[in-house]
């Protein structure tokens, strides 16, 4: 599970957040977007959120973060750990 904007996996310092439209992005991307455009606009479905909807007010997507951490664990523990420089 990775953020569709920065393609980084969700993590504790990259918390997944649900937008009101149902799409999920990491807090870092949402905060950058909020700083630039003073509101959150979903890049996938173009849903504009009210300016008072701030990244920290959106609900966390624990499922996405859980999947991401499991995926990272598998990568680190898996048999293919020679292929780190993809
Ligand atoms: Zn992101
Ligand atoms: Zn959306």
Automatic annotation (TrEMBL):
Keywords: Metal-binding, Zinc, Zinc-finger. GO terms for molecular function: zinc ion binding. It holds the Pfam family zf-RING_2. Residues 3-46 form the RING-type domain. The keyword Metal-binding applies. InterPro entries: E3_ubiquitin-ligase_RING (IPR052667), Znf_RING (IPR001841), Znf_RING/FYVE/PHD (IPR013083), Znf_RING_CS (IPR017907). The keyword Zinc applies. This is RING-type domain-containing protein. The lineage of its organism: Eukaryota, Sar, Alveolata, Ciliophora, Intramacronucleata.
């Amino acid at each position: 599970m990775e953020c569709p904007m920065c393609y980084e996996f969700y993590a504790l310092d990259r918390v997944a957040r649900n937008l009101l439209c149902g799409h999920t992005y990491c807090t870092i991307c949402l905060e950058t977007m909020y700083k630039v455009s003073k509101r959150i606009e979903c890049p996938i479905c173009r849903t504009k959120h009210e300016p008072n909807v701030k990244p920290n007010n959106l609900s966390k997507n624990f499922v996405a973060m859980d999947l991401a951490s499991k995926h990272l664990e598998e990568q680190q523990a898996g048999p293919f750990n020679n292929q780190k420089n993809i």
